[in-house]
Design goal:
This protein is mainly α. It has a domain at 41-79. It contains eight helices and four strands, in the order αβααβαβααβαα. The chain has helices spanning 3-23, 49-53, 56-65, 98-102, 114-117, 121-130, 140-158, 168-193; strands at 47-48, 72-73, 112-113, 137-138. The strands form two sheets. Strands 1-2 form a two-stranded antiparallel sheet. The radius of gyration is 29 Å and the shape is extended.
Length: 194
């Protein structure tokens, strides 16, 4: 065999081996997702100080969250996953919103009276403001009226040229303002927490 033919044969063999290697299935495993951290290590339904101490962010807020000061966080005292940043809960379908307030509905009539709201001091303070239709109860109609008013207020603020329509530029400007306001509130909340 001539040296040229030998070189061509070796090159062909190398290409064949490279092709097989490239066609071989990849055997790398996907990165493992971290295990979900369990706060209630002993499964007793509450988080005590020792369990909270293993989670620094929870430990630093333990006394603030322990509303009844029994040294344990029950389910209704714990921060929920739907909580907004900064520790403030919203009422737009997040846990802790209207769903949590409805737990105050002692007579199970689907609405919260002023007397029922008195069990939660912050809610009692805002009751008059939240009772949009002024019927003496907090219910779905009040929540829907508040959301409708917020949407109308947002639209009015976003529609800067007052043509009854929101252009892409107006929408982008409104979203930028909303983001800046949110960041400002978060920064203020962090300063207050110190």
């Amino acid at each position: 065999m001539s040296p040229t033919r030998l070189s061509l044969a070796v090159a062909a063999a190398c290409l064949a081996v490279a092709g097989i290697a490239m066609a071989a299935p990849q055997t790398t495993k996907p990165a493992a997702t971290p295990a979900k951290v369990k706060l209630d290590a002993n499964n007793d339904g509450v988080i005590d100080r020792a369990e909270a101490a293993k989670h620094p962010r929870l430990a630093e807020r333990f006394d603030q969250l322990d509303a009844n000061k029994d040294g344990r966080l029950s389910a209704d005292e714990r921060p929920q996953r739907g909580m907004k940043r900064g520790g403030k809960r919203g009422d737009r379908g997040h846990r802790g919103g209207m769903d949590q307030k409805m737990q105050l509905d002692a007579d199970k009539d689907g609405r919260i009276s002023r007397a029922e709201a008195a069990k939660q001091p912050k809610l009692a303070e805002r009751f008059t403001q939240m009772d949009v239709n002024k019927d003496g109860f907090l219910d779905r109609t009040d929540r829907e009226a508040r959301m409708s008013a917020r949407r109308a207020e947002w639209f009015s603020a976003a529609d800067t040229n007052r043509d009854g329509q929101i252009s892409r530029a107006e929408y982008d400007a409104a979203q930028s303002k909303r983001q800046a306001d949110r960041q400002q509130k978060q920064a203020a909340g962090k300063r207050d927490a110190r």
